[in-house]
Amino acid sequence: MGMSVTISAATEDDAEQILKLQYLCYQGEAELYGDYSIEPLTQTLDGLRTELAGGCVLVARLGDEVVGSVRATVDGDGTATIAGLIVHPRMQRHGLGGRLLGAVEDRLADERSARCFRLATGQRNEGNLRLYRKWGYAQVGTEQVTRKLVLVTLEKRVPAAAFA
To answer: Is residue 126 left, alpha or beta, with left meaning phi > 0 and alpha meaning psi from -120 to 50?
Structure first.
């Protein structure tokens, strides 16, 4: 019988595993754009620890191994910015990305009064775009970051019933 994946708040002890997983997961993105200097591949452990201390960071665990993660912050207007959604390559296409996204949305709405969710992904990353659209996100803008990289920004409003 296999173990099940659990989702919980990340701790400082998870920082090294998250950083290693992030490095693994963003190799494909870097290859897609021919740019290995993207921030997820150059982030330091101290930089990640700062994010852990200042935002909402969740991890997916299979036993003691971190196999997924997502991060978010909420501004004063209630807009949550979701970033760093990663799932170990061997665990992809089994719904774990959606579970992480749903878990962070629930937490941000419940604990941080988020009214809108915003995230961004590369224009060529069809897998991410498909996942976000499936979860109700709609494109609201694009930004030319480099000659090869265009970021697509997507948003989703929290249903008004959630505030009742």
So the answer is: alpha
pLDDT digits (tens, 9 = 90+) for 100-142: 999 999 999 999 999 999 999 999 999 999 999 999 999 999 9
- Paired tokens of 114: 């988020």
One-letter amino acid of 103: A
Count of alpha carbons within 13 angstroms of residue 7, beta-carbon side: 23
Residue 82 phi/psi, 5-degree rounding, is: -100, 135
CA distance 133 to 143: 18
The two three-digit tokens of residue 11, written as one number = 């701790």
Report how far residue 71's alpha carbon sits from residue 81's, in angstroms, rounded to the nearest whole number.
Answer: 8
- Beta strand 65-74 with 56-62 is antiparallel
Look at residue 11 and tell me whether its pLDDT is greater than 70.
Answer: yes
Q: What is the predicted pLDDT for the residue at 35? A: 87
Averaged pLDDT score across all residues of the chain: 92
* pLDDT digits 0-9 by tens, 62-82: 999 999 999 999 999 999 999
| Statement: residue 54 has pLDDT above 90 | no
Q: What are phi and psi of 153, to 5 degrees?
A: -100, 135
CATH topology of domain 5-116: Aminopeptidase (3.40.630)
